[in-house]
Amino acid sequence: MRNSRFVTRNSQFSLLFLSILALAFALRMFFPTLAEFKLDEATVVRRALAIAYERDLPTEGVGASVGTANLPFFLYLMAIPLRLWADPVAAVLFVGLLNGLAVWACYALGKAYFSPKAGLIAAYLFSVCPWAILYGRKIWTQNLPLITLGFITALLATFVKKRPWAFTAACVGLAALIGLHLGGLAFVPVLLLAMFLYRREIELQPLLVGVALAALAMLPYIINDALHGWHNLRGFLGYTGGPATFSLDALYYAFAITGSAGIEGQAGAFVNEYLARVLHLWWLNQVMMGLLAIALVYAVVQLIRGPEERRRVFVILLAWFIVPIAMQLRTSRATQPHYFILLYPVQFLLIGNLLADAWNWLSRSSRRQIPVAIVGLTLLLVWGGWQITVWANLLPMMIEHPTTGGYGIPLRHKREAAALVDATLCPGEVIVLSTENNPAFEETPAVFDTLLFGRPHRFADETAFPVPDSMRVAYLVGPVSEDGGELAPTLQMLEETTGFHPGSQTTLAAGWTYRSFCRQHTDREDVLSGFTRFPADVLFANHVVFAGYRMPETVAVGDILSVKLIWWLHETPAPGTNFQFYTHLLDQDGRLVSQYDGNGYPTAYWQASDLVISRFPLNIPGDLAPGTYAVRAGIYSWPEIINIPVIDSQGNAVDDGVTVGKLEIKNDQ
């Protein structure tokens, strides 16, 4: 009878665990196209694609907010799913899978060192936590709870289970944590503390092998940094040595991310609409924070009064919780909630231990077991149900309001926008026109540099309009506000020039759109229409040819003078070169009164025979005297700031720029 009861109980635990695991995977992997996809995520995926398909082998990863680059381990990890499917969705699903497995690892650790009940409770709380779900779907450089749990499990196996070679795994786990994100350095003191307290139990051979493997994993990064003047080390030292202020934000965030406190901020400007959708049980977050505080006190009591083996467990778990927080109490930068992903899931393990012991204590009498079980399960279901509701109501907000300031435009809409260029039936190159042009630092180019992987593409901002010498070219414009915003002149050009044909568009909230166009002309005379041609083409020494211009004959003081230059490229520039254009507004004495420098079409994208319209908005000072003024334009190299001369047919320098034309500036006041 006892064996039958034991088997039944085990079956119940197994069923509960499998249900929790299925829930964890569902919350982290369902609706993958609603994952965030901003600059950081796009950069990770693009660099991982380079590893998977272009044989790029980076020795440093994505830059961190502390002024230094991370190690590249996360990039190599993301290259695995992307090699199977070159789509960001593959990375989202893979990260969701890893974070779902972290729930399993949480249960396994809780079961091994506390009890099956503690493991179940911890895994359940971890699985339904909205912050853990949000971070568990992100494809930015981050610490992965699965790797954190592997490191902690190896430490516990070394010093609690007395398995010497587990220390080697702990060293490798620490290297992996640091390789994922430099935040993993917070676990170095945890390891050193355990080594100091239990130093007599460390065997030399596992120690040497572990240190050697960890050093080997980080050696390429260190060598690369040494070869480049230790720029990462200097950046990190500058961060740690800079002026710092004390703040308890770290402690608050460590508690807040056990539930959903503050997650409403992801709804951005529509936070009130989001709050109206969710049942107002936000006070439950304070209850969970209170439980964590009690669990910490309970852990300290057990650390002091418990048996040696159990005390060691709490030494490591408390160090895991305390050290990362302590390292962020005094910093030179504002602390953010995601800095504490590396705590997951220690909070839930401590709470699970507390609740399991309380459950057992209250169930000492056989008559109490069923009532306690009913009450306990009901409370857990209420907590989990509400937290899932909090998360589930956030997803529709991203569909209905994808331009909010918190979460941003999710992957879904950006994939739809990238697919527009296929709908244009233009199989050639893609020109992406937005308010940004640098995929290394700016979101829209970074996103479409990733989503258009495998198809030729270039970028220009609202001040440039390139027309390649090609039979078919697809144009993707956006995101565009309802009134066109800064992209209005670009859209006007596309809509009014005969060679461009409108394609499909995808609509976001509040009138925002992505729009596509297709050009199917090789003759570009339609683009030149409306421009005043120079008497003779103006050839610069870098093979740029000014062909014509367009600007108003008069403009009022205080207005913006829009000067358009149309130019084409005789030869593709050498790699690594960078050119900028300047436009100067000069008075009758040749004095500079206004200027605009820039290049909305980066030099790295220039190709021979490109025809480009560049727009230069010059501010007309409000106190400028009315009269006749001249506009002069030219080119200089950057960052040397050396003017590129205008040359004649023999290659001789004849000037350092060209006078575009003259105009009248009037005072209409």
Question: What does the model show?
Answer:
The protein is α+β, with helices and mostly antiparallel strands. It has three domains: 2-400, no CATH class; 411-525, D-Maltodextrin-Binding Protein, domain 2 (3-Layer(aba) Sandwich), CATH 3.40.190; 531-666, Distorted Sandwich (Coagulation Factor XIII, Chain A, domain 1). Helix content is 48%, strand content 18%. α5 packs across α16 and α9 runs antiparallel to α15.
Attribute tags:
669 residues, alpha+beta, D-Maltodextrin-Binding Protein, domain 2, Coagulation Factor XIII, Chain A, domain 1, six-stranded mixed sheet, five-stranded mixed sheet, 20 strands
The percent range for helix content is: 40-55%
Instruction: Supply the number of structural domains.
Output: 3
Which class do the helix and strand fractions yield?
alpha+beta
Q: Roughly how many Å apart are the termini?
A: 100 Å
Radius of gyration: 31 Å
Q: How do you describe this structure in short?
A:
This protein has 669 residues and is α+β, with helices and mostly antiparallel strands. 48% of the residues lie in helices and 18% in strands. Strand 13 (579-586) and strand 14 (592-598) form a beta hairpin.
Write the layout of secondary structure elements.
Blueprint: H1 2-29, H2 39-53, H3 73-84, H4 88-113, H5 116-128, H6 130-135, H7 145-159, H8 166-180, H9 187-197, H10 204-227, H11 231-241, E1 245-246, H12 249-256, H13 271-277, H14 283-305, H15 308-326, E2 330-331, H16 346-362, H17 366-400, H18 411-423, E3 429-433, H19 443-451, E4 457-460, E5 464-467, E6 473-480, H20 488-496, E7 500-507, E8 513-519, H21 525-528, E9 532-539, E10 544-550, E11 554-556, E12 560-569, E13 579-586, E14 592-598, E15 611-619, E16 627-637, E17 642-644, E18 646-647, E19 653-655, E20 658-666
Parallel strand pairs: 3-4, 3-6, 11-20
Antiparallel strand pairs: 1-2, 5-15, 6-8, 7-8, 9-10, 10-12, 12-15, 13-14, 13-16, 16-17, 16-20, 18-19
Helix pairs in contact: 1-4, 1-5, 2-3, 2-19, 3-4, 4-5, 4-7, 5-16, 5-17, 7-8, 7-15, 8-10, 9-15, 14-15, 14-16
